[in-house]
Specification:
- This is Transcriptional regulator WhiJ.
- The protein is an alpha/beta fold.
- The chain has two domains: 9-81, Orthogonal Bundle (434 Repressor (Amino-terminal Domain)); 93-125 and 156-282, Endonuclease, Chain A, CATH 3.30.870.10.
- The chain is built from twelve helices and six strands.
- A six-stranded mixed sheet has the order 3-2-1-4-5-6, with helices on both faces.
Length: 283
């Protein structure tokens, strides 16, 4: 298969998981390459996501690596043979790659969990709110680029719509609800939209109020995306150079525990809805 100039996060993840299986089996890259009748350079490209890999090769590698986790192997095969060209592809070359990677991650997620402290989660934002967020950047973005980012953010919401909508849980701090990215009317519209979305069976919104005792988790913002098996879950967190995709088993476990801890210190869903409704009325 031809070398990819810029592999996606999903393609890189497949390569990473194949490398982890190889390392767990105690094999070197050249030894794995020999099993496929190829060389170390090709094996390195497969494990970095720069080269594709067929179903037959994934299953051969898994057998040689003594991997007996059938669900994991099937999930890796699905990743290797996936030819989906989602709506996000029309933004390739126009927006940073991480925008597209995030949309693809959400598209394939079996569930989504999010914690935010300063902003309304992107999947729940109104167009006006999103535009205000992107417009505040310094240096300012050109108007056409702001338009593209807003359009992309609005299209991401497709995962929450329709009969195959993805289960979504959000925990939002009161600070994010009170910060006005626009005027009072825009804030009221955003809160009303939150209430409307929270009525859906597959969406739950919880609030962490300012006056809640015992909360010290303001650094726990994240988007947790469930994979076909827990090992293939992914966490997205903001880093110094943009969104960071986290997939190590230890860090995933820590983030699962952190999410449950944040949920345990938040208001119940009905209490949260009442809280947001009261805030909207005050505006």
């Amino acid at each position: 298969m031809p070398r990819r100039r810029q592999p996606t996060a999903r393609q890189e993840r497949l390569g990473t998981e194949l490398r982890r299986l190889r390392e767990a089996a105690g094999l070197k890259g050249r030894e794995a390459a020999a099993l496929l009748g190829t060389d170390s350079a090709q094996m390195s490209q497969i494990e970095s996501g720069a080269a594709g890999v067929s179903e037959e090769r994934v299953r051969r590698l898994a057998a040689h690596y003594a991997c007996t986790d059938v669900e994991l192997i099937d999930a890796l095969v699905a990743m290797a043979t996936d030819r989906t060209r989602g709506w996000w592809e029309k933004y390739r070359g126009a927006l940073p790659t991480r925008f597209l990677d995030l949309a693809e991650l959400e598209h394939h997620a079996t569930f989504l969990r999010e914690v935010q402290f300063l902003f309304i989660p992107g999947l729940l934002q109104t167009e006006e709110y999103a535009r205000a967020v992107f417009s505040y950047r310094v240096p300012e973005l050109p108007a056409p680029e702001i338009d593209l980012r807003v359009q992309h953010r609005m299209q991401r919401k497709v995962v929450l719509e329709g009969p195959a909508a993805t289960p979504y849980e959000a925990v939002i701090h009161e600070a994010a609800l009170r910060i006005r990215t626009g005027d009072r009317a825009a804030s009221r519209t955003q809160l009303t939209r939150l209430l409307e979305l929270s009525e859906a069976d597959h969406i739950s919104v919880r609030v962490i109020p300012f006056d809640l005792d015992g909360f010290a988790g303001a650094a726990s913002a994240m988007l947790y995306a469930g994979g076909p098996v827990p090992r293939l879950d992914t966490v997205v967190r903001d880093g110094p150079h943009g969104a960071a995709f986290i997939d190590s088993e230890a860090q995933l476990g820590a983030c699962r525990g952190l999410f449950h801890k944040v949920v345990a210190t938040s208001l119940e869903v009905e209490q949260s809805r009442d809280f947001i409704h009261k805030m909207a009325k005050e505006l």
